[in-house]
Amino acid sequence: MTDVLDVVPGKSGELVLRRAGDDFEVIANGVFLMDTRNGESERLLVSVAADLVPGKARMLIGGLGVGYSLRAALDHPGVGEIVVVEREPAVISWNREGPLKDVHDDALSDERVTVVEADLVKWLRRTEERFDALCLDIDNGPEWTVTDGNAELYREDGLDMLAARLRPGGVLAVWSAESVPSFAKRLRARFGQVRELKIPVPQGEPDVLWFARV
Q: What keywords were assigned to this record (predicted)?
């Protein structure tokens, strides 16, 4: 049985938080966006990126989601400061004071975490901050974006913008619900080293993670 817990207007249309048994689901403008059923690939997105960076990484997490990536970053010994960029105030509220708070053991209260309420693409255009790891999970994939504006991130100019926000030796990590050979090709053209991981899921095609560094 599914119970609707909250319905609010969002940046990309109606946002719905609902409970399905013991799990939570977030629906954006009628499209399934995320849930709390597994989260393995979301955790690996940040833990593998942190493994690739020596020392205490300064990490950007694009997309708060249900907090799985943030929790994994906080639990990794190689991660120091974390900046989370999330454009939906409701998602931040559900994670900070709402039912998602217990999913990640109140990760937002950790003093190492800074939450920025902003559109990631617009924020990256104006910021001069640099990071050891950029971990992006704001869409269902490079060709399955939540809004049209996000598509810029996965094009050549977007990859140039992301590379400019990396410190020397830094890592770009990108999450996708599907394999996208054309995006992998663009990554390899822009970055010197690219690793692709496929993570099996209970149903459907595996999740895909890309890790790229200059």
A: Polyamine biosynthesis
